[in-house]
Amino acid sequence: MSHNTRQRRFAALRACDRILSGVQPTTMRDRLADMDAGGDLDDEPDFYGDGPVTMLEERVANLLGTEAAVFFPTGTMAQQVALRYGADRSGHPTVALHPLGHLEMDERHTYAHLSDLRSTWPTTEPRNPTAEEITALAEPVGTVVLELPLRNAGFVLPSWDELAAASAAARAIGARVHFDGARMWESTAHLAHTLSEIADLADSTYVSFYKTIGGISGAALAGTTELAAHARIWRHRSGGQVFQQWPAALSALAGLNRELPRVPEYVRHARTVAAALATLPGALVYPEPPHTHRFRLWLPHPAQALNDAALALAEEEKVWFAAGWQETNVPGMAMTEITVAAPALGWTTDDIAEVGDRFIARLADH
Predict the structure, then answer these.
(1) Where would one find the signal peptide in this protein (predicted)?
(2) Which of 186, 192, 255, 270 is the most exposed place for a label (fewest CB within 10 A)?
(3) Could you tell me the pLDDT band of residue 1, with boundaries at 50, 70 and 90?
């Protein structure tokens, strides 16, 4: 996307009165004002990880029921530390992960380039591996990675019983269990268990602060005190011991205070939104019903035409429907990801059908 197109979309979305997918973008001034919800701006800033950063670490450890949590500037760095820890403790440099996971798709195979680790894939199916697939691994592994939810497969989750069985199978073969929980915040409704109950199935858990809860940036790696000590050493060695990170910490705390309690409501409403969108001509929704408050939507039109229609609807009617369309390997179908958050809660099935008809009608011009 060009800079001009991105700026045009930002302006159009910011001016919208109604938003079905996503949230209204904020300026830097908005974000600074929002930090009051995370802590007292008259307090001292952090100094290499104390103050609000420590407060955030303690909050995450409490939410996940772990002995400790360590703040990282990026999830990529946090995940590499977790995998290195597994390799060091087990003596096995192989990591079992999914080819659609963040480590393969979004982190440029950092585990291989920086830590000399290699991967094996328990499955290539668009879901997390099963207990049977983990048990059948042909070589010893230091860590088994499970992504909750598996974003690039459509934000899909296993059932609770499947997740518990996969965790037990990993431990039975002598591997650590690591949850790539960038969006684990939104997984509790489908799994019908609390964050601490979910994290208890893993030896380490990574969570993101800008995904789901809307922080500026940052992540945490949670687990034992031994893991935390290792993580702090390798965070420093990796260049993550930043002088001050109070904006990221306060915005994360604000998100935990404001957004996290509302996520189950978003997940429930996503089921209504998905069912309504599935009635559009030629539409496909996956998964149906959604496992989280995010899901995928396909329509039988070119991606550019759909993006143009979405932008025109926003600029002319102040309504944001669904944008970010991409071509797919399904002939004639384009796909986008729908995120149901606070702005979508007021949309009824009838609202979605009525605006959807107007959106589709705009495609006739292409």
Answers:
(1) none
(2) 192
(3) low
**Which architecture characterizes domain 46-243 according to CATH?**
3-Layer(aba) Sandwich (3.40)
In this structure, how many other beta carbons lie within 10 angstroms of the beta carbon of residue 308?
Answer: 17
Please, what is the end-to-end C-alpha distance for the chain in angstroms?
20
Quick one: which of 180, 37, 28 has its CA closest to 96?
Answer: 180
In the chain, which segments carry CATH 3.90.1150.10? 3-26+261-365
Cα angle: 148, vertex 163, 126; to 5 degrees: 55
Q: Can you spell out the DSSP letters for 63-131?
A: HHT-SEEEEES-HHHHHHHHHHHHHHHHS--EEE--TTSHHHHTSTTHHHHHH--EEE-S--SSSPPPH
Nearest to 80 by CA among 63, 59, 95: 95
What is the topology classification, in CATH, of domain 3-26+261-365? Aspartate Aminotransferase, domain 1 (3.90.1150)
Residue 97, C-beta contacts closer than 8 angstroms, at least 6 positions apart: 103, 104, 119, 120, 121, 144, 145
Q: Which tokens go with 41? A: 């701006």
Read off the amino acid at residue 302.
P
Instruction: Read off the pTM.
Output: 0.95
Cβ neighbour number for residue 233 with a 10 Å cutoff: 12
- Give the residue ranges of DSSP H helices in 286-362: 303-317, 349-362
CA distances from 334 to 5, 172, 182, 288, 300 (A): 19, 42, 26, 18, 6
What's 46-66 look like in SS3? CCCCCCHHHHHHHHHHHHHCC
Boundaries of CATH 3.40.640.10 in the chain? 46-243
Token reading at 326: 């991409």
CA 122 to chain centre: 22
Least confident of 21-30, 53-62, 345-354: 21-30
Q: What's the confidence (pLDDT) of residue 42?
A: 86
